[in-house]
Write a structure and sequence with these properties.
Rossmann fold; elongated; 14 helices; 15 strands; three-stranded antiparallel β-sheet
Amino acid sequence: MKAGRGRRDIDARLDEAAGLAEAIGVEVSDRLHFRIRSPRPATLFGSGQVESIAEAVARDEAELVIVDAPITPIQQKNLETATKAKVIDRTGLILEIFGERAATAEGRLQVELAHLDYQAGRLVRSWTHLERQRGGFGFLGGPGETQIEADRRLIRDRMAKLKRELEQVTRTRALHRARRQRAPWPVIALVGYTNAGKSTLFNRLTKAEVMAENLLFATLDPTMREIPLPGFDKAILSDTVGFISELPTQLVAAFRATLEEVISADLIVHVRDISHPDSDAQREDVEAVLAEIGAGGEGGAPLVEAWNKIDLLETEDGERVQAESARRDDVIRISARTGEGLDELLECASVKLSKGAKLRTVTLGASDGEAIAWLHANGRIESQSTDGVETVFEVRLSEADWARLQNKQRA
């Protein structure tokens, strides 16, 4: 069920909400859309709208109502009374998906912390989920469970413990990141709206087998692989969690350690589903999250837009997209499924990573074959001279590669 707002395509938004429900195995029996001119504090919806929802629940014998908007605890309780069904909002649904999908210890810590923050002021069904090992967080527990007031002290204690554990995870991740930055390869981060095709692109470029299905939030935990890159020895490609409109603030905060992989990247590739009717609005959502975590923008890593799924465009739309992309030097049209445009994407990434290269003088031992090979692979040699003991290179290197070379020489 969708509470009308914004300029998004209504059908596309309903499809997205249904996709979120189906991502955790919920069978959608009906979709309702209401325009809310004046939100009611008690129920969000007007009385006639609540009656329509209750009638649909009774007709379809539905057990769950999903409101595709944030609702307060009192609105949730009143809607459950009126519809005689469980009610959850968009944030609760996304948290439930994340709870089922988190595969690593870090992911589970991050999602549980976000869940506890969300539940702190709400009635909950039970706290058994704190001990159980399976995914999910009990929003969709069996009928008849007793609702009890949340034990605030238990929440605070548990959140404090999770934060301490996540701080250790953050320190460990920072050490790994620093080690990678000393390595002689640039890092490219894939970002994008959920289901834009990031994991399919990742698999195509790396020949990996990361889960890539037509599911929202198929990927939660970041994955990294080496890929060949023109003009470079190699690069590290990172696949990250998908973004979504109105991504719960609790999740942005909880996943900050993971999202810092994007902040520290040398290049950001924003994968867009250019065939989606809300592609422009999705772009704005992704850019908003990037801005919130301090990635991209002025002074940040360069960004390339990969306009994906061009194989799904009708002829007229394909011609329009081609004309739009031709006017920009930061856009490459691709199909991760067929492989079209991927060579151009890698070439564009190479150009962006090399941009701002300056002429540097580098002196290396004539016998230091590894360093000399790295210099040839990552820089553009303008001239070189040797006296048999040392070789002096005049080479163009980007700031990032210059820093890598210095780290390499200090190691």
